[in-house]
Design brief:
The complex is a heterodimer of chains A (about 750) and B (about 325). Chain A is mainly α and about 750 residues long. Helices cover about 60% and strands about 5% of the residues of chain A. Chain A is globular, with a radius of gyration of 30 Å. The termini of chain A are far apart. Mean pLDDT of chain A is about 85; it is low at about 440-455 and about 725-735. The longest helix of chain B has 29 residues, at about 175-205. Chain B is elongated and about 100 Å long. The chains are: A mainly alpha (about 750), B alpha/beta (about 325). Chains A and B meet through helix 19, helix 20, helix 21, helix 22 and helix 23 of A and helix 8, helix 9, helix 10 and helix 11 of B. Chain A: InterPro entries: Oligo_trans_STT3 (IPR003674), STT3-PglB_core (IPR048999), STT3_N (IPR048307). Chain A: Pathway: Protein modification; protein glycosylation. Chain A: It is found in: Endomembrane system.
Chain lengths: ~750, ~325
């Protein structure tokens, strides 16, 4: 690499040079891993070691259960404290990889007599794995390029790019925390297998694929990408025994491994998501057969007949798959995956998927925000892959096109795009640096492509390479690249610190004098629940808060973020969006003791329930279209209002009443303002007759109401009639008869 | 089938002659008007159809089909409604259960529209029977308001909810034989064409530059937010309120169609400068022109990146970084 005669180079040449470079490389990788871990610790330093957001709270709770009860109990776990009164077969409906990983780490540390709290393991698991991801990235990129710096650059990009940090800061204890490492590492093993045609690498890829299946639902991406890679290779006429060996090994072992997870079970042979892998498995057998027979067939006619029969057989098999899907033997595409292709599907048919903010399409600023200058190096890197189009470069190209489509459709899938962007950007940037950092001019030996200017090669790579001659050019380009790299580091740090390090359980804002003001209403309210309510009190809230209530307050909930039962969620939506007379029977039938709402009107916290309210209405309307109507919540001019001109349906809904109950008492007469919606509120507080206010947190973000018991008859004359109605209904349920899910 | 038709019409004839009260044979009289499709109504027949007493359900859609009313929804939904009527009339229902489908166009039923004080179309009304086994106490019609494009399945589900329980004919979409045949023909044509032309097509298909261009265009499209435009149906450009055009939408998660094209062009320029620096420049043999090329590519890169950053800063207030020129 270096040809100058400075004394440092004595160390970098010959056999001592190799080991020196190896050592240097290890030091750089360790530094990168350290940077990856430390840039994810903002939230721990600013706030505390706390689990973030929503889903991580469930994972944390499940991990604690695993630690306390052992693996087999965890496997058979039936959770009766969620989805009251249905319960959830948790052991069979989750991806256990994450919990098992932290459980294993916990036990290893215990074995080494290092007492670490399980919470700290969970909080720091994602940063630790991001260090490993950087290393896996180094391995993967090294397979793509002969340049020694490409792998290190890719590792450095992966370590700090916000697209990955967004899902792996300390405390974000979610499946993605370990899944991205597994994704990158599985791809590395797969490339290794294809390159070497070795059963060992194929089996290792299958093993890590199995681990990936146990960790994240996004494994379907691998399940479809690897067959696609093989298919494209076959179409390009690049079939070889290497491809055959690696694919069949991976498919057979990987499918068996994935079927060990109860949640996946027989899906790999019963579901359309996995059919491409099976189809390619069949196709590659045919192609292998043809390849084998071709050697023994002399005549050209025979060969043509063979090709025709292969195409015919695969066509027939394809038709067979379609028929099987039509007849229902193979389940159709799952909703989440299908909505990626038919982008309007979820909004019409599965509002619960469409309602999640991370399932929205991605606007261009998000791409730039998450990837900075990598986003424009990315196409250049893909172009470089066309230069010497080896099997592994085909993989990069397919991955790039597919993942950029997915990332464009769903914000959340930016995560799967990030690794390949880092690979491609590192390919092009390392090429530039290698070219411009060489001190002496002269052609660089870079494989075959620069030597064969055939028509096959890329247009820009036809003439031979001569290198850069002037020092000025080198200095200009190198310094510009360094500026861009420094800007990238600054950008990543700024984005991580500003956008991705908030636990969202604890909020922070600035006081007028610049000091930090911590808003800790969530935990205040959840601990109130934990300490002031019986252990079996059922809490109803919108599903977003289900996991947090289960994790922090340890109380049974009606619905949570698992969202497996749309009807149950719609029931809660109906209770929230109906009049009290309608809601009260629903609350009684579901044994609800407390109702929790999130209200941001005092503080200007925009993620509150009134802003989510339309989704509750929509989801409820999906089940009871004639009882809950979205249109009733809009004024005749099509506005969504909460002030004097709010529609009667809005004003009488339980959600509205709970949110604004007594809110005007905080303000002088007629001055009550909602700081989120920016409107004046009616001067009179809504009257609640079936609920009692039990608790309101410091900044009014969380309000908890207790459901009144039936015995308080005759206290409110205006509602007496309505209560008689509810009373009669209730008497039947009070006698512990069979529980009825809903009244209609 | 024919025999069945003959039989039923005979049955109608007999029942019409035998019937004594006016209402029961009103149903058969209307049903014989149109055996499968919805009945085309006008003011008088609408009044007659919906008058009491009636022993049948009647689902009437009030619509404005003529193009001068500009009711796109009416025209879109009409085939769907025909489909519902067809499926119902073809299917088997319990003997005493009667449901009629009718269409009242604004041209034929201005009086009815005025009486109902309808401002919008289409509107679907379902009239319950007033006599007979399914009679309801509240005989006012149920109304379905259309709030957007909707499929026959959803409307049929809504109608079914208001009908008494019991087996109902499923909604059957007719198989589009034409499409299947044309699809197969086109497929075979393509295969034939490909086989015949393969000596000419194969070099194009195998052309690496073509595939490279295709992949890059796809990646640039997707990473500049094209799918967002497609899903959210954003406007191409918008006015800035002072008579000019604003090319960039305000706000982080908001964009215009043209904006994404500008961004894609910027990404493309940046990518090609990077490719130029990496692959083109080292291949220039002449030293002078190589240096000029480096400077040109470098300046283009810096300028475009700086502009991109300034655009991003405008979209994302509080973003602190920038590069010199812009």
């Amino acid at each position: 690499m270096a040809e100058s005669t400075s004394p440092v180079d004595a160390l970098l040449k010959g056999s001592s040079g190799r080991s020196a470079r190896g050592l240097l490389r290890i030091i750089i990788l360790v530094t990168i891993a350290a940077a990856a871990v430390s840039s994810r610790l903002f939230s721990v330093i600013r706030f505390e070691s706390i689990i973030h957001e929503f889903d991580p709270w469930f994972n944390f709770r499940a991990t604690k259960y695993l630690i306390q009860n052992g693996f087999y109990d965890f496997w058979d776990w039936f959770d009766d404290r969620t989805w009251h009164p249905l319960g959830r077969v948790t052991g069979g409906t989750l991806y256990p990889g994450l919990m098992v990983t932290s459980g294993v780490i916990y036990h290893i540390l215990r074995f080494l007599t290092i007492p670490v709290d399980i919470r700290n393991i969970c909080v720091l698991l994602a940063p630790a794995f991001s260090g490993l991801t950087a290393f896996a990235m180094y391995l993967l990129t090294n397979e793509m390029s002969s340049s020694p710096s490409a792998g290190l650059l890719a590792a450095a990009f992966m370590a700090i790019t916000p697209g990955y940090i967004s899902r792996s800061v300390a405390g974000s204890y979610d499946n993605e925390a370990i899944a991205i490492f597994l994704l990158v590492f599985t791809f590395f093993l797969w490339i290794k297998a294809v390159k070497n045609g070795s059963i060992m690498w194929g089996a290792l890829a299958a093993l890590f694929y199995g681990y990936m299946v146990s960790a994240w639902g996004g494994y379907v991406f691998i399940t479809n990408l690897i067959p696609l890679h093989v298919f494209v290779l076959i179409c390009m006429g690049r079939y070889s025994s290497r491809v055959y060996i690696s694919y069949t090994t991976w498919y057979a072992l990987g499918t068996l491994a994935s079927m060990q997870i109860p949640f996946v079970g027989f899906l790999p042979i019963r579901n359309s998501d996995h059919m491409s892998a099976l189809g390619i498995f069949g196709l590659i057998q045919l192609v292998a057969f043809a390849d084998f027979v071709r050697g023994f067939l002399p005549g050209k006619q025979f060969q043509r007949l063979l090709t025709a029969s292969i195409i015919l057989t695969s066509g027939l098999a394809f038709v067979g798959l379609i028929v099987l899907t039509m007849s229902g033997v193979i389940a159709p595409w799952s909703g989440r995956f299908y909505s990626l292709w038919d982008t309007g599907y979820a909004k019409i048919h599965i509002p619960i998927i469409a309602s999640v903010s991370e399932h929205q399409p991605t606007a261009w600023p998000s791409f730039f925000f998450d990837l900075n200058f990598l986003i424009w190096l990315f196409p250049a890197g893909v172009y470089m892959c066309f230069r010497d189009l080896k099997d592994e470069h085909v993989f990069v190209i397919i991955y790039s096109v597919l993942a950029s489509y997915f990332a464009g459709v769903m914000v959340r899938l930016m995560l799967t795009l990030t690794p390949i962007v880092c690979v491609a950007a590192a390919l092009v940037l390392s090429y530039i640096l290698d070219t411009y950092l060489k001190t002496s001019p002269g052609p660089i030996n870079r494989g075959r492509s620069s030597e064969d200017p055939s028509s096959e090669a890329l247009r820009s790579a036809r003439t031979p390479e001569v290198g850069i001659s002037s020092y000025f050019s080198k200095a200009v380009t190198t310094s510009a690249t360094i500026v861009y790299l420094l800007l990238f580091v600054a950008h990543c740090t700024w984005v991580t610190s500003n956008a991705y390090s908030s636990p969202s359980v604890v909020l922070a804002s600035r006081m007028p004098d610049g000091s930090q003001f911590i808003i800790d209403d969530y935990r205040e309210a959840y601990y109130w629940l934990r300490q002031n309510t019986p252990a079996n009190a059922k809490i109803m809230s919108w599903w977003d808060y289900g996991y947090q209530i289960g994790g922090m307050a340890d109380r049974p909930t009606l619905v949570d973020n698992n969202t497996w039962n749309n009807t149950h969620i719609a029931t809660v939506g109906k209770a929230m969006s109906s009049r009290e007379e309608v809601s009260y029977p629903i609350l009684r039938q579901h044994d609800v003791d407390y109702v929790l709402v999130v209200f941001g009107g005092l503080l200007g916290y925009s993620g509150d329930d009134i802003n989510k309210f339309l989704w509750m209405v929509r989801i409820a309307e999906g089940i009871w279209p004639d009882q809950v109507k979205e249109r009733d919540f809009f004024t005749s001019r099509g506005e969504y209002r909460v002030d004097d001109q709010a529609t009667p349906a809005m004003r009488n809904s339980l959600m509205y009443k709970m949110s604004y109950h007594n809110f005007n008492k905080l303000f002088p007469m007629g001055q009550a303002t909602d700081r989120v919606r920016g409107t004046k509120l009616p001067s009179e507080s809504p009257q609640l007759s079936t609920l009692d206010e039990a608790f309101t947190s410091e900044n009014w973000i969380i309000r908890i109401y207790k459901v009144k018991d039936l015995d308080n008859l005759g206290r409110d004359h205006s509602n007496a009639v309505a209560f008689d109605h509810g009373n009669k209904r209730k008497k039947t349920t009070k006698k512990k008869g069979p529980r009825v899910l809903r009244s209609e | 089938m024919k025999l069945f038709t003959l039989f039923t019409s005979l049955f109608y004839l007999i029942s019409i002659t035998l019937a004594t009260s006016s209402s029961p044979n009103k149903f058969e009289q209307y049903q014989s008007l149109s055996r499968l499709a919805p009945i085309q109504l006008d003011d008088s027949s609408y009044d007659d159809l919906t008058s009491k007493p009636r022993d049948y359900y009647a689902a009437v859609i009030l619509t404005a089909m003529e193009s001068r009313f500009g009711c796109v929804l009416c025209r879109e939904f009409q085939p769907e409604f025909d489909l519902i009527a067809r499926s119902w009339n073809k299917g088997s229902t319990p003997d005493d259960f009667k449901l009629l489908f009718g269409t009242l166009d604004f041209n034929n039923g201005k009086a009815a529209f005025q009486r109902l004080m309808l401002q919008t179309a289409p509107v679907l009304l379902v009239f319950p029977p007033t006599i007979g086994p399914y009679a309801r106490v509240d005989d006012s019609p149920m109304r379905f308001d259309f709030s957007g494009p909707i499929s026959a399945d959803q409307v049929y589900a809504w109608i079914n909810r208001h009908l008494p329980d019991g087996p109902k004919p499923p909604l059957v979409r007719p198989i589009n034989y034409m499409r299947i045949v044309s699809g197969v023909t086109i497929l075979m044509g393509v295969v034939t064409l490909f086989t015949v032309l393969s000596p000419y097509i194969l070099p194009i298909v195998r052309n690496r530059n073509l595939w490279a261009a295709f992949s890059l265009v796809a990646i640039l499209l997707f990473t500049s937010g094209h799918m967002f435009n497609h899903i959210r149906k954003v406007p191409y450009v918008a006015g800035d309120g002072r008579g000019g055009i604003s090319y960039f939408a305000g706000g982080f998660s908001n964009q215009f169609g043209m904006e994404t094209q500008i961004v894609a062009a910027m990404y493309a320029v940046l990518s090609f400068s990077a490719i130029g620096l990496a692959m083109k420049v080292p291949r220039i043999a002449d030293k002078k022109s190589q240096q000029v090329a480096v400077v040109i590519w470098g300046v283009v890169l810096l300028g475009t990146y700086s502009f991109l950053l300034s655009v991003f800063r405008a979209k994302n207030g509080g973003y602190p970084f920038f590069l010199p020129p812009f």
